[in-house]
Amino acid sequence: MGLGFTMCVRSCFQSSCLQWAWRTAFLKHIQRRHQGSHRWTHLGGSTYRAVIFDMGGVLIPSPGRVAAEWEVQNRIPSGTILKALMEGGENGPWMRFMRAEITAEGFLREFGRLCSEMSKTSVPVDSFFSLLTSERVAKQFPVMTEAITQIRAKGLQTAVLSNNFYLPNQKSFLPLDRKQFDVVVESCVEGICKPDPRIYKLCLERLGLQPSESIFLDDLGPNVKAAASLGIHTIKVNDPETAVKELEALLGFTLRLGVPNTQPVRKTMEIPKDSLKKYLKDLLGIQTTGPLELLQFDHGQSNPTYYISLANRDLVLRKKPPGTLLPSAHAIEREFSVVGTPFYVMEYCPGLIYKDPSLPGLEPSHRRAIYTAMNTVLCKIHSVDPQAVGLEDYGKQGAYIPRQVRTWVKQYRASETSTIPAMERLIEWLPLHLPHQQRTTLVHGDFRLDNLVFHPEKPEVLAVLDWELSTLGDPLIDVAYSCLAHYLPSSFPVLRGFNDCDLTQLGIPAAEEYFRMYCLQMGLPPTENWNFYMAFSFFRLAAILQGVYWRSLTGQASSAHAEQTGKLTEFVSNLAWDFAVKEGFRVFKEMPFKNPLTRSCHTWARSQSQWYPIGTRSYSSVPEASPAHASRGGLVISPESLSPPVRELYHRLKRFMEQHVYPAEPELQSHQASAARWSPSPLIEDLKEKAKAEGLWNLFLPLEADPEKKYGAGLTNVEYAHLCELMGTSLYAPEICNCSAPDTGNMELLVRYGTEAQKARWLMPLLEGKARSCFAMTEPQVASSDATNIEASIREEDSFYVINGHKWWITGILDPRCQLCVFMGKTDPHAPRHRQQSVLLVPMDTPGIKIIRPLTVYGLEDAPGGHGEVRFEHVHVPKENMVLGPGRGFEIAQGRLGPGRIHHCMRLIGFSERALALMKARIQPPTAEGREQERGLRRPCFHWSCRVKSRVAFGKPLVEQGTVLADIAQSRVEIEQARLLVLRAAHVMDLAGNKAAALDIAMIKMVAPSMASRVIDRAIQAFGAAGLSSDYPLAQFFTWARALRFADGPDEVHRATVAKLELKHRI
Ligand SMILES: Cc1cc2nc3c(=O)[nH]c(=O)nc-3n(C[C@H](O)[C@H](O)[C@H](O)COP(=O)(O)OP(=O)(O)OC[C@H]3O[C@@H](n4cnc5c(N)ncnc54)[C@H](O)[C@@H]3O)c2cc1C
Fold first, then answer.
1. What CA–CA distance (Å, rounded) separates 1002 from 784?
2. CA 1036 to centroid of ligand 1, rounded, Å
3. How many angstroms separate the CA atoms of 766 and 698, rounded?
4. pLDDT-derived band at 40, boundaries 50, 70, 90
5. Who wins on pLDDT, 593 or 288?
6. Which of 279, 492, 656, 918 is most exposed, with minimal Cβ within 10 Å?
7. How many CA atoms lie less than 13 Å away from 258 in the CB half-sphere?
């Protein structure tokens, strides 16, 4: 039955007063149409003779709005473009451009520089300019076209008075049909800009009118003010629809005929009128020979929606979009196909639909009343008794959220085009945080302001549209979904928001208040876990956007903007994740007090087994290690609180270190000092095989970069922090477990940015430990702590890039196993600063790579990898070896050094722990076991702190010297502080991503190397001269800790980052 679904929805309201509103509105509409009256008919008696229109912001979208949308998509700080447009006032580049005092090229140069200075990032203003002047964006609003037609039909003149500019092709930018206007005045032609009174006078002169005979519409206050001061009637335009209403009121006649929000049916969306007419006639029992009028509503992105008029019946038809659909999306197949796809028909209910949720042009009290009415109608929907209205089978009872999570995960997976880290995190997080469903009610499923039809004169909901996703379920989903706009920017395509507006000023209730209002009306206790519902709602929106994007890729999008829309999935998924993080904090704060935090400590010296007397630490801020908590929720600060599988991995690694790594250190150390040092040690290769066999391999790759665990062990950064610290207690363990720099950073780079071919060629051998790699950025002639200084050139030549440059401090380049050099150089020295660099994958056997010498660090060569000085002379590299594309080098370098850099910090904690353990062993009297070992009566122990001879000085063991005790205490405190900071950085990276963790990463990079240097230095002091020798790892630890204050970026750079972020966020 054609009207089946409509009737079904309507039957829900039989017990509510909504039914009354629905019917009354329908009847009122029918009466109005029959009487030929119109809602906006005015009193008449107008004395106006012309209407003058500004262009941007009135007839076409304003540059400010286009800029806001473009900034979101290009991740440019919000407001940059607008600020730069206004910069310099009358003499700023924008105004000079409008007066044609500078060319488009000159303007873009100056404007680009201004934007980049303001936002401290490179701003591709060319792309903004292209968008602003593109046919897609610079399109006249249909409501204005209609208004101009009506104005001219009444015999009034029309004019456009625009501040505009010359395009590079020397034509003025006027994307309008000039025939619509009697007079066109353009600032670039006249050399005068609004608000200069001369330009208004010029326009009036050309119209031949007095100021009081015209109405002027502009979106900018100063322009409106200037016109008003001349005596012109003015309308300040916030949105075109409202402006047209105001204009109607002034003129006294209607400017909009036909059905609001409709347009002729789009070419690709046409439906067969004849079969539809026949079907409707049969269905409704109508005898008519008259035509079927068909229009298309301009909204309805996913399901095209049509207005039908047939024999005085006004109907709405909603259908599935054409083409292949994702399973169970667009659930409207309650009808059979008359129009090519499933559809349904409902009654047309006239009224107001507020498309902009910030409700421009309304009074604050009116806005509040609209949102209160929206809340009230939702409460009414949720108060319907499904059984009483025969809807008890409308959906499954209970477990709604788990089913929804499964459904939307499935939907998302079916349309997934690339890995979005926040979506992956949410897919894991949501099932672990499902709320306990309190009530089952009718759920609308897409409850938003623009799905409500309001009474034209009072804040009252007449009809609720878009019921495709309705079912029985958890009503809080609807409440959350109706708050999405609170968190989206006004420029967000598809679903306009108002997170950039002042809600108090607008009079719109905040989301928290909206939830409270709902609970109060429903007589429910406050909703504590509303962040979960918000997280899920944004996750669902992200999945929907991804579906739209997928359809755009397969050429079936219902809207021209679909492709652009889909790209916003990542933005929305990050919003969802923000709510997940907030919910995490709430759960954490609410953990019951009677279940005290576990906090057990063991000393390092406590013996665990006869041969391997290693103590353990165990501290945890979460009650009991569950996989969810251990990995994602609370901060796991001890290995004992890791999830069981990771804890097992940690202990396996610990056993491996004790059984294989520490005992091998003397031999590995002497190999590094031997003449054979520039060849890899066979013992290392042997140990690598053992580590691989024990699954202690490639542990470094963060889960977020490799969610399917295709390449690594799938550990979170926090989990890896504990394992990495343990590996850091030996200089050799990281390589043995294929977790050493610079390979780790390079492998992560390939996973994140490499093509499949690049991965096959380079990533696989690196993951297998068969090859090694290096990263070449630093240059002797420039300050390389600032990567934008890099000078090496990468020039295009036929199918190759040709490299020329001088690099140094390239770790690992001397290793005979090194097969890949990840090279950073400049492809375009004239591009914006951060778009000049590119990254190329250079095979080490390419002719032209000349290693000049190995550099030493405090005299150490660090063989066999070394740190090389090297020249690249006319090195030809195939074009397909470019990573991501030219100009993306800076972006890649930043991504590469995210997790990779805190790995050094994790290892530095390991260095420090071992230094402290050695120091303690050194200063304490020997144990009975130690004495027996020394006398050969007991098997030697290879624990890191063994092989140390304890000392007595000035009649007392060192342990009794107060200064030594103070050193130990100080070292323990400093290690613990730094460890917490490392773990915190890792935790924030896991929860909120590398970008959000920028401050934590910079802080720990500032802290860890200096802390390690101090702790190791104290240990060296306690060892006396022996501490400087190669008999102990202390000297090498110290060298590395010091070197990392450069290799990981100089301390000053990290300090500058911390200060910058501190000033940005904390004032
Ligand atoms: C052991 C080791 C291994 C390395 N491995 C590699 C490698 O594999 N690949 C590679 O490309 N590079 C490598 N490097 C080089 C390292 O990345 C650079 O040394 C580092 O980026 C600093 O650059 P620079 O030496 O040119 O110092 P410069 O940039 O010249 O800086 C010198 C000094 O200027 C000061 N300074 C710089 N910036 C600021 C600021 N913003 N505020 C205040 N003061 C500032 C600091 O005191 C800094 O130490 C390695 C270095 C070492 C020591």
1. 18
2. 20
3. 10
4. very low
5. 288
6. 279
7. 17
pLDDT of 10 reads 31
Closest CA to ligand 1's atom 17: 1047
pLDDT higher than threshold 70 for residue 299: no
| Ligand 1 atom, smallest distance to 776 CA | 11
Which pair of structure tokens corresponds to residue 934? 């020394």
Residue with tokens 């040690």: 681
Q: Whose CA is nearest to atom 3 of ligand 1?
A: 1047
Give dist(CA 424, CA 546) in Å, integer: 14
- Measuring from atom 16 of ligand 1, which residue has the nearest CA? 1047
Cβ neighbours of residue 954 under 8 Å, at least 6 residues apart? 961
Separation between Cα atoms, residue 751 and residue 418, nearest integer Å: 13
Atom 50 of ligand 1: nearest residue by CA position:
1047
Of these ranges, 310-314, 706-710, 1024-1028, the one predicted with the greatest mean pLDDT is: 1024-1028
Note the pLDDT of residue 953.
65
Locate the ligand 1 atom nearest the alpha carbon of residue 857 and give its number: 1
Higher pLDDT, 977 or 635: 977
- How many A from CA of 351 to the centre of ligand 1? 66
DSSP H/E element including 541: helix 530-553
User: Which of 120, 743, 1046 is the pocket-test mutation for ligand 1 (most atoms within 8 Å of CB)?
Assistant: 1046
Residue 27 or residue 914, greater confidence? 914
Pocket lined around ligand 1, Cβ cut-off 6 Å: 742, 774-778, 783-785, 809-811, 857, 867, 1043, 1046-1047, 1049-1050, 1052-1053, 1056
Residue type, 1058: V
- CA 810 to centroid of ligand 1, rounded, Å: 12
In this predicted model, what pLDDT tens digit does every residue of 764-776 receive, in sequence order? 999 999 899 999 9
Measured distance CA(785)–CA(112) in Å, rounded: 25
pLDDT at residue 144 is higher than 80: yes
Buried b (16+ CB within 10 A) or exposed e, 191-206: ebbbbbeebbebbbee
Q: Which atom of ligand 1 is found nearest the CA of 1048?
A: 17
606 vs 684, residue with greater confidence: 684
The CA 1064 to ligand 1 mean position distance, Å, reads: 25
- Residue 44 scores a pLDDT above 70: no
Q: Which atom of ligand 1 is nearest to the CA of 742?
A: 8
Alpha helices, H only, 795-942: 889-923, 928-934
Testing ligand 1's pocket by substitution, the residue of 773, 809, 1036 carrying the most ligand atoms inside 8 A of its CB is 809
Supply the residue whose CA is at minimum distance from atom 12 of ligand 1: 778
SS (H, E, C) 247-264: HHHHHCCCCCCCCCCEEC
Confidence band, pLDDT 50/70/90 cuts, at residue 949: low
Amino acid at 160: V
- Residue whose C-alpha is closest to residue 11's, from 285, 281, 314, 3: 3
Residue nearest to atom 2 of ligand 1 (CA): 1047
Q: Which two tokens stand for residue 986?
A: 């890792």
From the alpha carbon of 1050, which atom of ligand 1 is closest? 49
Q: Which atom of ligand 1 is nearest to the CA of 1045?
A: 53
Most confident of 128-137, 480-489, 570-579: 480-489
Following CA atoms 335, 336, 337, 341 in sequence, which dihedral angle do they give, to the nearest 10 degrees? 50
Q: Which of 609, 654, 624, 617 is nearest to 639 (CA)?
A: 617
Bridge partner residues of 775 (DSSP): 822
Spatial distance between the Cα atoms of 205 and 384, rounded to a whole number of angstroms: 64
Question: If we measure between CA atoms, which residue out of 510, 666, 572 comes closest to residue 1033?
Answer: 666
Question: How far is ligand 1, taken at its centre, from the CA of residue 857, in Å?
Answer: 13
**Euclidean distance between CA atoms 672 and 661, whole angstroms:** 15
The mean-pLDDT minimum among 245-249, 374-378, 907-911, 975-979 falls in 245-249
Between 947 and 785, the higher pLDDT residue: 785
